[in-house]
Structure formats: C-alpha cells, structure tokens
C-alpha cells in the first residue's frame, strides 16, 4: 500500500489535476522582453497562478520560433529564445499548451520579475 501512495504522490507532483483534465509541467522560464512590452503597466494586477496565453509568432524577424506571452490579452513578453524550441515545435504540431504565472518578484532585473510555467494538457 505504501508504494501505491508513493506513486500517487509522485503523480501529483509531476502533473497538475484540473477540474476538466490532466496536465504536466513542461517548462519553467523567465519572461523575456518584459521591459519592451506592457508588464510594468499590468504588474499591480498580476498574481501567482494567473493564466497566461501562449501564441506562436512564426513571422518574428528576430526568432522564427518566437512564442508570445499574454496576460488577459495584453502582451507582456516572450518565452526566452534559448528555451522556446520545444514549446514552439509542440504548438506547431497541435499540442495543447497552457501557461501560468509561477513566480513574481519586484526585482530590478527584468529577467527575474516573472516566471512562466508552461504545461502540456494531457487530457480533458
């Protein structure tokens, strides 16, 4: 019985259960480019756990794998170029990804202000 409980605990750590499905944490990344977008404007309204929208931007002239990060439809930055390969490839292949604010910190370094947690939606 103890091993069954251990397996259940491990599954809960690796996957987040939602009322309508199952998801697995795929990536934790800082938010890139926040200083060039509207993060400062919406900062007072943000909370850890807030849902974020990820949108591919394949025509981005700086990065063909660009993945925009939006909060309530407002662009606040990007997944970092060094960490967007898998998310972009999965999105292009039709995978369902979701994202949430994983951490907020009022740090002077824009790369340390917000952590994006990216999830793969496994089932609905």
From TrEMBL:
Gene3D superfamilies, per the entry: 3.30.70.2330
Signal sequence region: 1-19
Name of the protein in its database record: HIRAN protein
Superkingdom per UniProt: Bacteria
Keyword Disulfide bond in record: no
GO function terms (MF aspect): hydrolase activity, acting on acid anhydrides, in phosphorus-containing anhydrides; nucleic acid binding; zinc ion binding
Phylogenetic placement of the source organism: Bacteria, Pseudomonadati, Pseudomonadota, Betaproteobacteria, Nitrosomonadales
Domain HIRAN span(s) in chain numbering: 24-122
Keywords recorded for this protein, A-Z: Hydrolase, Metal-binding, Signal
InterPro entries (alphabetical): HIRAN
């Amino acid at each position: 019985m103890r091993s069954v409980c251990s397996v259940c605990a491990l599954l809960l750590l690796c996957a987040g259960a939602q009322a309508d499905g199952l998801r697995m944490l795929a990536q934790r990344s800082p938010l890139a480019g926040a200083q060039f977008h509207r993060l400062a404007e919406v900062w007072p309204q943000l909370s850890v756990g807030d849902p974020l929208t990820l949108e591919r931007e394949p025509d981005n002239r700086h990065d063909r794998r660009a993945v925009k990060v939006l909060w309530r439809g407002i662009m606040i930055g990007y997944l970092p170029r060094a960490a967007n390969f898998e998310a972009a490839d999965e999105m292009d292949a039709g995978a369902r990804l979701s994202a949430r604010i994983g951490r907020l910190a009022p740090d002077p370094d824009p790369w340390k202000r917000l952590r994006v947690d990216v999830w793969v939606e496994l089932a609905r």
